[in-house]
């Protein structure tokens, strides 16, 4: 029987366009043309994903009992998230890097990274999962190092490469331990094998869990594996920081969902408390440290760590409702955080500094940009009726819901910690808003943001507001996606 | 009259569209002002129409009027459910009125006029939404929406220490709202199994709240009550208020004291009392104590102030204490009087803050020791201030008297001679107002400020004040106009039925 590749087509489109980009650059010699072709590629791939969503999903790829890739609602939803992030990154980058060399490679790497992320979302096998992770990681290593003459960039890229490599190694080791215990690399198979084992946790399984938490924890930047994130976000070209925060980090969450909710759910009782503690630590440390930042990229990086803490609640609670909240949060966060980073990129393109104090008086210089930034920051802080509010509501309420079960009352603390942290985070978000709207800046000269960047920002603003006002359809699809992880 | 028109939604749409139009088209400050005037005017007209058409003769069983109910986020049981009863309709009218008057009063705002006017309309939207929502979630959203325009109004157009005050305001009240949100969640998750389906509907939840375990009822009650008394604000959670008031621009203070504080007391009546009448009954003494302490503490704090505006801010704490005391009695009269006091305080406090703002503008200071003998120089301002003080200290014939008197009567019926304690605060109130008046507008003309070029009230100051004073006198002489609207809605609240 011939293998049906149709599940791979969206990924293949991205790869094909990525491969074509150097040729396009050779002919057209303009970064805009390259960016334009990339946009076409991303849109084509998105179109195919949408087509699948409407007209039924392709059959799983691989052997009949051991599928490797499965294109379902979950994969489609995350493919759309990753593609949207890639789209805004490309739109912002077109002007941002126009003076740099190797532009075709830059855009090609963005598309390859996206392809890798899409693969992880489709993977139903530990090996394909790992392949996707590596494709995405290696591409982003190069992207972070793109401005190799920039000292901060060079430092960031070395840090990112070393830590990224380490985290890959740790997760690979964890994966091989799992294989050793269960004799299979299929996610569902791992779970079935673990569930069939006699009670009492194998020490090797403990090791595997610890290694996987550490390996994926680096990707998601969970405390205490978060140290690299602020430095790398600060040193990377800003659109790439956005890609890391809004895309790569979400891939880490996909990995965690796949491994913990699908493959290790049988051991839930053993890792739940650990995940809960990590969630609370992550949100608290992220938010507290964000309070003290003076550089806006670092502030956004730490706030991202805080937000990752909220997402870990989904793992700790591990109910379908919680995963639904986690997925919802990933979607909203991609647009809020992505948008905020694109604004920072756009502003540094027009020569505004990256210190938070440089944003003083911005409302006079670029009123629409300041307004958009305020919308993102309010959404991140969870002020209704913006999108970030709903995702927090579902996440926190899933914890309260789960706490109704005897023996799990401690989960109430996840919600309490989340809410206290939201209040804390408000302070540093509002401080930026205050700078932009209340304080007087040193200059009142108007800032003119290039069209393509404005489009990228506008996409994020519209998504942030629209999801806030009409959360229904998104909640629906998130709940369908969450259901795919909980086979009954 | 409004069978086919979603009139309550219109009340939300008009200020919202108004805010967008004003911010979009108001490049010229003059245009912005007129746009804001028109849109807040239409809102006021609509609110007045709704109030006039509010049926007083509806049979007691009928719950809310002009109801609108649509599913919103069906998965979670969130609905877009609006409706008014005798309590909310008064607050809706008060909101529309105060915002309209505040727009007029702000006629001399020249800096960033369009954002200013747009934010006023957004604030209108939020406050009206809070008073009309019958779904916890919708209620919470509007509750939070109110914070943003108020934050900007203080942070951009406020006094010298505005950055500190605005952030303090935002964080304080946001934390309180988050605690309230936790309470709402707990309520939702406890009520949904009892109802058999997820629901945030206030009415539906009120029907099953009595079946919840006692401990969980108390916990939820505490969380919600905390959220509301911070907003009211009651001692010891009041410290954000003087800062916010002193720094806010005059119209901001008017809306803050006139409307935002009412959101707190409205929440206690609409949510705490209605959903958990039994728990309120159990906590009656504690609630009354918080109210009385706030009354006395606020009054003493007023005596110590030298800044007129700060004094008025503290007096708000004292007067909102009266509202809480009225609620604590859990009698028909006490509850009705509490609502009446909310309405009265809204009118009176607007006058007081406006006159304080005028002093700042005209004399350049609000420091009482620097003022003195200004009555002959600025007769209109001084007269209005005097009337405001009189209304606030409860002079018979003005609206404040009726409210305070009813609350104290209800307290006497419930607690007997303990009523002497809150009455003491009435005496203190008279003392600080008269003392402030004597020092600031009577006596010898001051030499500490430039009184040569001092100018009496402008038209845009006189008009709103005249309207307010007129209403204060009208409802003071003929309180039935208000009481007739409030009274039929009270028994339902006290017994917890829909």
Compact summary:
The complex is a heterodimer of chains A (488) and B (498). Chain A is mainly alpha-helical and 488 residues long. Helix content of chain A is 76%, strand content 1%.
Q: How would you characterize the overall build of this protein?
A:
The complex is a heterodimer of chains A (488) and B (498). Chain A has 488 residues and is an all-alpha fold. Chain A has helices spanning 9-28, 31-55, 73-96, 103-122, 126-144, 151-182, 187-196, 203-220, 228-235, 238-263, 268-291, 296-317, 320-349, 362-365, 367-381, 387-402, 412-437, 451-469, 471-485; strands at 61-62, 67-69. Chain A is globular. In chain A, 62% of the residues are buried. The mean pLDDT of chain A is 89. Chain B has 498 residues and is mostly helical. Chain B has helices spanning 7-25, 29-53, 86-105, 113-132, 136-157, 162-195, 202-208, 214-231, 240-247, 250-275, 277-282, 284-304, 308-329, 332-363, 379-393, 399-415, 420-440, 459-477, 480-486, 490-495, and strands spanning 65-73, 78-84. In chain B, helix 10 (250-275) packs antiparallel against helix 14. The longest helix of chain B has 34 residues, at 162-195. Chain B is globular and about 75 Å long. Classes of the chains: A mainly alpha (488), B mainly alpha (498). Chains A and B meet through helix 16, helix 17 and helix 19 of A and helix 5 and helix 6 of B.
